[in-house]
Specification:
This protein has 214 residues and is of the alpha+beta class. The chain is built from 9 helices and 4 strands, in the order βαβαββααααααα. The structure holds glutathione. This is Glutathione S-transferase family protein.
Length: 214
């Protein structure tokens, strides 16, 4: 049984969708960041970085980093085609975009949502936030350009964890329509991902989360 330490509206969504798509046995363990549950002694023992998600593996090991979790699960289940095999011609392009989403786009949302963590002087928070908005616009434009030439998905003709991860990031955008109306190829990919039954299940079932003690 996998256990995903989970908080709604966060980087937990992509690993959740991957677990659901692969039909793996799992449960969600409530770790609501708005209630500070990621800062408790017990959670910090699992993930000293104090971030969600964390995934407890069936052998008891703990894995963190949303992109790494998705990649690991997808690679362990090649029949799902959620990631191209290491020797597949699409693999270099796949890895390139996986890292781009996790280190360029996800990183800019972090500055957008937590600007105070990037400045010593609180008066500069608004400037960090404004720069994050500019960076997001430029960085999403590269994604839209790639998808408009190669889409509807990042690589190949079927959705992979790249498309799932992208959809998670899209849901963070404020307002989401501003991004989607400026990015037709992102919209097309996002809408296809939203139509997947595993994605619907995850988005609808966000209330069904067990407390850590159960
Ligand atoms: N690089 C990490 C980032 C995880 C992360 O920053 N998670 C956010 C939610 S999306 C979090 O735990 N925020 C609470 C905090 O930073 O205090 C990953 O992708 O898993």
């Amino acid at each position: 049984m996998y256990e995903l330490y989970y908080s709604s509206g966060t980087a937990c969504l992509a690993p959740h969708i991957v677990l659901e798509t692969l039909q793996l046995p799992y449960r969600l363990v409530e770790t609501d960041i708005l209630k500070g549950m990621h800062r408790t002694k017990d959670y910090l023992a699992l993930n000293p970085a104090g971030r969600v998600p964390a995934l407890r593996l069936p052998d008891g090991g703990i894995m963190t980093e949303a992109a790494a979790i998705c990649l690991c699960l997808a690679d362990l289940h090649p029949q799902s085609k959620l990631s191209p095999a290491p020797d597949h011609p699409d693999r270099p392009e796949f890895l390139r975009w996986m890292l781009y989403l996790a280190t360029s786009i996800q990183e800019a949302y972090k500055r957008y949502f937590y600007p105070e963590r990037y400045v010593h002087d609180p008066a500069l928070k608004a400037s960090v936030n404004a720069q994050a908005i500019i960076d997001l616009k430029d960085r999403w434009a590269l994604v839209d350009s790639h998808l408009s030439k190669n889409g509807p998905y990042f690589v190949g003709g079927e959705p992979t964890i790249l498309d799932i991860f992208m959809t998670m990031l899209v849901t963070w955008h404020q307002p989401v329509d501003a991004l989607l109306s400026a990015s037709p190829a992102i919209r097309r990919c996002h809408e296809r991902v939203l139509a997947l039954s595993a994605v619907k299940t995850c988005l609808e079932g966000q209330g069904e989360i067990s407390p850590a003690s159960s």
